[in-house]
TrEMBL record:
GO terms for biological process: meiotic DNA double-strand break formation. Residues 282-383 form the LOB domain. This is LOB domain-containing protein. Belongs to the LOB domain-containing protein family. Transmembrane segments: none annotated. It holds the Pfam family LOB. InterPro entries: DFO (IPR044969), LOB (IPR004883).
Length: 440
């Protein structure tokens, strides 16, 4: 078994086969024997090492085969397609398969044996669509439709009209499905969805803030008390003026009347000043929501102002006020603002996606990056094909052995789906959100 002591020897043997540029079935059999393991961990590590090795070697090999014949280039391309399919690197497999099909399509004008049928394009479109490469599936569907329409025109006299119409309808349906999938994951669609979500969140925030402002009964009660004490103060001031204007003969009566008035005045004035001081410093949003007195050293006050109650409300709903307080006390003072910003962002993400939160958004963006990298890889392969077309052909005629070798490999090319099934049936955890591009 490859998971035993013979695994290092087999890995070394496969590396030596590739280094010696032996692209044959024996090398593929060695690679297939490497992928049989007793435990999943060893299998994942070996597949990752082989993926990096094959990607690095394939780039150097593609530069080496510039001046080889067309059949030799296609044979090497198809070898790497099968190798990447065996190790489960679907992205690299589809990229090289697409390059091989484009190269054959270009060269078929001078050699009809290299013609790409509509079935080959259609199978490739299905594989690309299943793996999430929607734009590539759309292009492959267009190629399949163009090839079939050319064949339909050539066989107009002998072809079955209804059968041809059914095939064209199937290809168009596949193309429409790929285009809809690509449109749903495009940057424009994501931006429109994001703006729509922001408008809904803003409307919810404004409505909750307006509701809280209308229901602030404690503020109205405090303002009423302040007005009442202000009226009492003005009334006692008028009474003092009246007492001072009384005659000296009524001094004893003045004293007995003036003492309780002064006491009442002093009490009302001190209470009035206390109310003014309390109204001047508004409690923070956390103390207002928790209905408690806001102390001078309140840990929430610098980060949750009273004019933004929704900010603390959502953090309190997700994490809890006591947990946030403990967390802020353990963090240095200069890092608390960043910590509060992170908590608010994560709380908003948890409200939108209670299961994944920020991780779901990160994974979604990683998927978009992977798809864009795949499109970049396809564009680079097309550039490489154009460069290979512009190079001068060698004067020597193509060897008949090369043609027979390519035809044999083309027959094996149709067996690639079983390699996909082999890779998926193995105990390998493949995350489509963490693909790496072949050309980066």
């Amino acid at each position: 078994m490859a998971g035993d002591t013979g695994a290092p020897h087999q890995i070394f043997l496969f590396r030596s086969q590739i280094t010696a540029r032996r692209f044959n079935d024996e090398s593929l059999r060695i690679l297939e024997s490497l992928l049989v393991f007793k435990d999943v961990k060893s299998q994942i590590e070996t597949r990752s090492d082989l993926k990096q090795f094959l990607r690095f070697e394939s780039l150097s090999i593609f530069h080496e085969i510039k001046y080889k014949t067309v059949y030799q280039k296609l044979f090497i391309l198809q070898f790497f397609v099968r190798a990447f399919a065996l190790i489960g690197d679907t992205e690299s497999c589809l990229a090289l398969k697409y390059e091989a099909l484009l190269f054959r399509d270009v060269k078929s004008s001078s050699d009809q044996s290299l013609h790409v049928s509509h079935l080959e394009w259609l199978n490739f479109a299905h594989h690309s669509l299943d793996q999430g490469f929607y734009s590539i599936a759309t292009q492959a569907s267009e190629k399949a439709l163009a090839c079939f329409q050319k064949k339909d025109v050539a066989d107009a006299k002998t072809g079955d009209f209804f059968e041809n119409a059914r095939v064209i309808e199937d290809i168009k349906r596949l193309k429409d499905r790929a285009m809809r999938s690509a449109a749903s994951g495009s940057v424009q669609a994501q931006a429109a969805e994001y703006l729509k979500r922001k408008v809904v969140e803003k409307s919810r925030t404004c409505s909750s803030f307006r509701t809280e402002t209308k229901s602030a009964a404690s503020t109205l009660f405090r303002n009423g008390i302040k007005k009442r004490h202000a009226r009492e103060l003005r009334k006692h001031q008028k009474a003092d003026t009246t007492v001072l204007d009384l005659s000296k003969g009524q001094a004893g009566r003045i004293v007995s009347f003036f003492v309780p008035i002064c006491v009442k005045r002093e009490f009302s004035l001190s209470y009035f000043k206390t109310e003014i001081n309390m109204a001047g410093s508004s409690p923070c949003a956390s103390c207002k929501l928790l209905r408690r007195r806001c102390a001078k050293d309140c840990i929430f006050a610098p980060y949750f102002p009273s004019d933004d109650p929704h900010k603390f409300a959502i953090v309190h709903k997700i994490f809890g006020a006591s947990n946030v307080s403990k967390m802020l006390q353990e963090i240095p003072l200069h890092q608390r603002a960043d910590a509060v910003g992170s908590l608010v962002y994560e709380a908003n993400a948890r409200v939108r996606d209670p299961v994944y939160g920020c991780v779901g958004a990160i994974s979604y963006l990683q998927n978009q990056v992977s798809q864009l990298q795949m499109q970049l890889a396809v564009a680079q392969t097309e550039i490489l094909c154009i460069q290979m077309q512009q190079e001068p052909n060698l004067p020597a005629q193509l060897d008949q052995d090369d043609k027979s070798l390519l035809l044999a490999s083309c027959n094996n090319f149709n067996s690639i789906p079983q390699y996909f099934n082999f890779a998926s049936s193995s105990n390998v955890i493949q995350d489509p959100l963490k693909r790496e591009s072949l050309w980066t």
